[in-house]
Amino acid sequence: MKKTGDGRFIEKRVLVNKILLKELIFTVKNNNNLTWNDFAKKFNVTSMMLQHDWLIKGRTIPLSVFKRIVKLSGKNIDNKSIKVILPFWGQKIIKGKPKLKKVKIPNKNDKPFSEFYGILLGDGCIFSDRKGLSISGDKFLDYPYYVEYIKCLIFDLFGITPSFYFSKKDRSIKCVVYSKLIVDILNKTNFPIGVKYDKKPRIPKFMFNKKDNLAACIRGIMDTDGSLAAHPHSKIMIHLSITISSLRKSVLSGLKRLGIPAGEFNKGIMIYGKEKVKLFEKVIGFSNNKNIYKYSTFLKTGKVPSSIETEMFIREKEGI
């Protein structure tokens, strides 16, 4: 089956009733004892496309893929439940000057925007030319967090899909969004342009008005700049690596407002002990798979997996 350069299938597509599609996919998944990653590989798609684009958003599916899913499900499908679409559904050939990329304007008082803002405060930056932004992480440990969670978050907030770049020289992954409008939206909330260190970044004051938004913002910082680790005495600790004083003070104030005890040193914030980490997880939580895996394993075994053990788990699960 042919694909375009960005991975889209060149063939007829079908628009399927979301309830029916969910029933078919879960039937195939459960009957064949497949993980989401196994399912995606079986049909030569990404797990992001499967879970987000098809199940959540109800987007069109290549006709040949849909036929295979129906066949494996063993169900008889009423043709009234599907609609056959021509290739490249929703695309048009535009003559003349290209139009600017459409961007959805998010509500800055919603939790998803707060979490995205925290992600940017942690490992993101706005380009000095104001044309876009990037977020950097570890291409192994942060793989599912970037290509699935952050990708979905950006799409849900702004209606556009980011690009991802995997370094061949080191372990880095970059999530890049090109949009002057998004930069303007962020800059109006005082997110700094260019290098953050000299601009005294901090959690915006308006996010302190709602505890849920404040927690979401700190969750974004935790999932990018933070880590869970073993400790010889307290067994488990959270380390937020924040070297910028203004941001560190801001996060400390946020933790205090949320009732979470924490200690500060010149390179970050530490939260020691099972009870304090339990409180952090309850109030703020984790979205990054590596943190979820480490904490869930600690609850089961009493030990925090090392980064090497966590990487092995993620690479095996994601097939990377």
Layout of strands and helices, then pairs:
Layout: E1 13-16, H1 18-31, H2 36-42, H3 47-56, E2 61-62, H4 63-73, E3 82-85, H5 111-123, E4 124-126, E5 132-138, H6 143-158, E6 163-166, E7 172-178, H7 180-187, H8 211-225, E8 226-231, E9 235-241, H9 245-257, E10 263-265, E11 268-272, H10 274-283, H11 289-301, H12 307-318
Share of helix, binned: 40-55%
Largest sheet: 4 strands, antiparallel
SSE class? alpha+beta
**Terminal residue distance:** 23 Å
Rg to the nearest angstrom? 22 Å
At the fourth level of CATH, the homologous superfamily of the largest domain is: Homing endonucleases
Mean pLDDT: 86
Taking pLDDT < 50 over at least 5 consecutive residues as the criterion, the unreliable ranges are 1-10, 86-99
Strand order across the largest sheet: 4-5-7-6
Order of helices and strands: EHHHEHEHEEHEEHHEEHEEHHH
Query: Can you tell me the CATH topology of the largest domain?
Result: Endonuclease I-creI
**CATH class assignment of the largest domain:** Alpha Beta
- Backbone shape: globular
Number of helices: 12
> How many domains in all?
3
CATH architecture of the largest domain: Roll
